[in-house]
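User: Show me a protein chain along with its predicted structure.
Assistant: Here is one chain, sequence first, then structure tokens.
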Amino acid sequence: MKTAWIATNERTAHQSSFGGAFGRGLARHGFKVVYGRRNSFKHTDLLVVWSTRNQQLIQAQLATGREVCILERGYIGDRFKWTSVSFGGGLNGRATFRGPFEDGSRWDKHFSHLMQPWSDRPDGYALLLQQVPGDMSLRGVDIETFYKRVKGVFPGVKVRAHPNRRPCHGAAYDGMLTSLQDDLAGARLAITWNSNSGVDAVLAGVPTIAMDKGSMAWDVAGHALETPGRPDRTRWAHAMAWKQWAYIELESGYCWETVRG
């Protein structure tokens, strides 16, 4: 019997909830599932963790040649109702996802209504989508220097601060009081390092620049500080639909049946 160690944070509601559902789905497929603290981890066939912050734990498991599964927030729609499931120990665009990516039925069922035609707003503003300093997706990145570059290339850029970021030293962020949808509605293009808001921008039809391969919008975004194109998003969208899962799909075992490889 294969074993799985679910090492999510039991003091964090969404981690324990979705981690528990995923574990019950694994049990339906014959796994012996252990729910344990991360600091008491013992090597197992499958390590399941939330996010990639605990690199020591992830690398220890990978060193044995055994599998690591990363759970994180979803990317499309209500991110609190969907959980991404990936492998390999990487985050977002640096992770390995599994699924029948050419099958568009899941996209059509759950998400197709979210895709808007590409917009053309020559008089719109450039929208800078900021991120929280210290986020795992920004490891090793001098993000403030990047923001300064963007402001130099796109004069009058509208800055949208991440909702979790607080203004400091009296700085004013003009994107703090409006919704992301409102900010995107007036944008001719959007710029991000690798924020998941880049996915929202692409879905809203706003041509998007993503500078890091870790961005989930990478395949349909430009990668330089210049006017991006408007590529076909069909294959990207169909694949994205298989990269996030609802609670009931985790718990029923349907998710594992699809992604186990």
